[in-house]
Here is the input.
Amino acid sequence: MTIQMVLLPVFVQVALTFGLLFWMASARTGSVRRGETKIRDIALGQTAWPDRPQQISNSYDSQFQLPLLFYVLVILAWITKHADLLFVVMAWMFVLLRLAHAYVHTTSNHVPTRFRIFAAGVFVLLLMWIIFAVRILLAIA
Here is the structure.
């Protein structure tokens, strides 16, 4: 696999994170401008934001949880030369599930749907890690 093919899903995941960051910033500044949120109420914590900015913020925050394991795995797979076609396909599956998760999180926020998408992403990433670990361990043996 080429480095471009391996890193393209990473670039999309990073773009999702930055997109949510800018959207969150816009929602929060808009809330302050409209007087829905007072600076003193959010100076020491995030609980005073209205639902919409908080919803976007929650989705943004989730990009620093499970995707961290994805980023580490991509780096490890590349430097150990274990980033093959299966790896890239699964990376795209994970990123597409993260996009779907963020979409549900910032629209309907239907928790059962959001959970099913999240769980599917967890499963894909776990499977990626298992395949990677088995390949590494079998190469050492």
Remarks:
- The chain has one domain: 3-140.
- The chain has a mean pLDDT of 96.
- DSSP finds six helices and no strands in the chain.
- Residues 3-33 form the longest helix (31 residues).
